[in-house]
């Protein structure tokens, strides 16, 4: 990290006093912040380098309404707790002051003495835009100056992020996607990652990448989900401008960028938000509301106005300053239910006696309204694991207002089904078909995410039954089913080439595996699936509409076969998808079709290039004038063992 050398900083004796005449805050700012409607607080709070009357310095402002004293401490004043006191601004709870001589690159914290019990603590800036490299925890005076080169992407991104667009997401943990073992297993910087990740995602045909939380966090083992810096990209990989470069580079390659964002809880580290001014400022005081038993962390008080200003400002900040295309909101279910992961008596009902967290519901609705109002060309994604209704429906009709919801049900059912020995699958055929009972109640993303390859669950490949050939064939079928379903797609890194071992955040993926054999074949399969998905409107245009998906047959449990048609809006052509979930070839196998004429075989997971046995249908067949399965025409196909086939037919 490039900070100015300590020898250039003012010494303790040379430190200039705080000046209250330089301010970035107005009465309107105080009013809006205190009523929960100030959604650009990063322009006012935190640290901002300014020049006033020829004097250059930094304005500091922090919310600490229950403090008796707040001072700025740092390397510029020898961390002296008395030299630079801030001034309270009326009844707003905000303390502010201008310190001459403090400039970009200097590190600081706030020293806070509470009015209660003389409690004293040193805190990082809640609105800092840059932090020291962990395990150090101070904030860094910085700026957001950057010259963007993604104008073409930004001008057209509405069409890339819409419900009617192909959306195939590559989920990435930046610290372990690639490392440099020759240099002590060090992580790559944002700028090193930019060309490598952009080229790779582009080559495999992904439309978006989603980064697990890059917001600053003290413990790498939390993968970023224990956030302390809601406005700061982690300094582990470089500066804010370095992260902007990564986003910029991806956009120039035509790839959208989504971020994980965690408003559901925050860690209890001493330097963070917890017990900030000697009171429970950001969190609830009662542990039945303010303590999260799953993660030993604090829960935001969504009913507090200033907390809403803080969180919604954070969300909008990433869109405004980092050109992000969407936020995936983590652990929404834990926000919605007051009794989430709690036993009876360990939670407090709402005012009507129910388990719904009314304040969190109100916060989420307002969050989504403000994001879409300011940036109608982006998307908000909810990781919501229950049957809460209308998550991805507008708040105006009673929904939560998200654009998309993760379909955790499909993920669970498919993995349970695919992990079974194929001989038993016919007894669990409903796991394949149940999704279509609810598939269009929400706008869904189908995730095979990091959560499925950690904590002893094993990698996707290692979950599959059988010998090596069967495992890869099963995984090709699973990934093919992902792309056959109505809904957007998400795949966690490593799954695309068949990582054998469970994901480890401290190690690079095993890239040597993808150099050949079954692993290389699987990687080719994923690339071809992405390219097919993006090239055929029938596979994406109506991902969120019932008219986009039609069963041909879902009843053949004994042979482990399902078939469906995917439709675009014009309905002049269709994609027929037939899946054989058993290691037994089926030939001939008759399947009903919608159109006469030639049906071209577009993809076959059993092709030799992917590591299969090479069985197929000679590039396609002409449909017979034989009505079958409720369709006016039919095809007599060869279904290879453990395979999924894609055909295209139309009116010509």
Can you give keywords for this protein?
652 residues; alpha/beta; Immunoglobulin-like; elongated; disordered N terminus
In which order are the strands of the major sheet placed?
9-12-15-18-19-20-21-22
* Average pLDDT score: 95
User: What is the assigned CATH homologous superfamily of the domain at 6-140?
Assistant: Immunoglobulins
Q: How much beta, percentage-wise?
A: 15-25%
CATH C-level of the domain at 6-140: Mainly Beta
Low-confidence stretches: 1-13
What does this structure look like?
- With 652 residues, this protein is of the alpha/beta class.
- Among the domains are: 6-140, Immunoglobulins (Immunoglobulin-like, Sandwich); 546-650, Golgi alpha-mannosidase II (Immunoglobulin-like, Sandwich).
- Helix content is 23%, strand content 24%.
- The chain is built from 14 helices and 30 strands.
- The strands form eight sheets. An eight-stranded parallel beta barrel has the order 9-12-15-18-19-20-21-22, surrounded by four helices.
- The N and C termini lie far apart (61 Å).
- The model is unreliable at 1-13 (pLDDT under 50).
């Amino acid at each position: 990290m490039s900070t100015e050398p300590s020898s250039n900083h003012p010494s303790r004796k040379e430190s200039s006093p705080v000046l209250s005449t330089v301010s970035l805050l107005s009465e309107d700012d105080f009013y809006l912040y205190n009523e929960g409607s100030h959604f650009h607080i990063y322009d006012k709070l935190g640290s901002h380098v300014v020049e006033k009357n020829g004097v250059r310095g930094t304005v500091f402002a922090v919310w600490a309404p229950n403090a008796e004293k707040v001072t700025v401490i740092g390397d510029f004043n020898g961390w002296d707790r008395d030299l630079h006191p801030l001034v309270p601004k009326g009844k707003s709870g905000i303390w502010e002051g201008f310190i001459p001589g403090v400039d970009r690159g200097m590190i600081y914290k706030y020293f806070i003495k509470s009015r209660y019990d003389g409690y004293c603590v040193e805190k990082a800036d809640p609105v800092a835009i840059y932090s020291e490299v962990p395990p150090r925890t101070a904030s860094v005076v910085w700026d957001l100056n950057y010259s963007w080169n993604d104008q073409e992407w930004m001008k057209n991104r509405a069409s890339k992020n819409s419900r009617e667009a192909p959306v195939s997401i590559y989920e990435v943990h930046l610290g372990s996607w690639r490392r440099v073992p020759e240099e002590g297993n060090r992580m790559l910087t944002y700028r090193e990652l930019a060309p490598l990740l952009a080229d790779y995602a582009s080559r495999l045909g992904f439309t978006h990448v989603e980064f697990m939380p890059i917001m600053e966090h003290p413990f790498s083992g939390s993968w970023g989900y224990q956030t302390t810096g809601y406005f700061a990209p982690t300094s582990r990989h470089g500066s804010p401008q370095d992260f902007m470069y990564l986003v910029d580079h991806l956009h120039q390659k035509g790839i959208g960028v989504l971020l994980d964002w965690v408003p559901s809880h925050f860690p209890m580290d001493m330097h963070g938000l917890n017990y900030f001014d000697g009171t429970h400022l950001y969190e609830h005081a009662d542990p039945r509301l303010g303590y999260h038993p799953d993660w030993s962390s604090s829960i935001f008080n969504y009913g507090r106005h200033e907390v809403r200003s803080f969180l919604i400002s954070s969300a909008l900040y990433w869109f405004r300053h980092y050109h992000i295309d969407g936020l995936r909101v983590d652990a929404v279910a834990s926000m919605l239910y007051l009794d989430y992961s709690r036993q009876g008596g360990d939670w407090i009902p709402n005012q009507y006696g129910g388990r719904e967290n009314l304040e969190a519901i109100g916060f989420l609705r307002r969050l989504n309204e403000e994001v879409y109002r300011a940036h109608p060309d982006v998307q908000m994604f909810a990781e919501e694991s229950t049957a809460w209704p209308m998550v991805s429906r507008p708040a105006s009709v009673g929904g939560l207002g998200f654009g998309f919801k993760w379909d955790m049900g499909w993920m669970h059912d498919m993995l349970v089904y695919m992990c079974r020995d194929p001989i038993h699958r016919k007894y669990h055929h409903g796991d394949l078909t149940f999704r279509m009972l609810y598939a269009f109640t929400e706008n869904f993303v189908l995730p095979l995410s990091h959560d499925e390859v950690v904590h002893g669950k094993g990698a996707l490949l290692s979950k599959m039954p059988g010998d090596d050939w069967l495992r890869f064939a099963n995984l090709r079928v699973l990934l093919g089913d992902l792309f056959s379903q109505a809904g957007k797609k998400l795949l966690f890194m490593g799954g695309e080439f068949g990582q054998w071992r469970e994901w480890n955040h401290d190690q690079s993926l095993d890239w040597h595996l993808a150099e050949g054999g079954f692993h290389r074949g699987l990687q080719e399969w994923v690339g071809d699936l992405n390219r097919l998905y993006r090239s055929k409107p029938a596979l994406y245009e109506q991902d969120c509409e019932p008219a986009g998906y039609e069963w041909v047959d879902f009843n053949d449990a004994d042979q482990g076969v399902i078939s469906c048609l995917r439709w675009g809006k014009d309905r002049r052509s269709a994609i027929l998808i037939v899946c054989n979930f058993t290691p037994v070839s089926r030939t001939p196998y008759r399947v009903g079709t919608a159109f006469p004429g030639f049906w071209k075989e577009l993809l076959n997971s059993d092709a030799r290039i992917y590591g299969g046995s090479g069985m197929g249908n000679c590039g396609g067949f002409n449909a017979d004038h034989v009505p079958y399965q409720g369709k006016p025409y039919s095809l007599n196909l060869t279904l290879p063992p453990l395979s999924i086939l894609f055909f295209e037919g139309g009116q010509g």
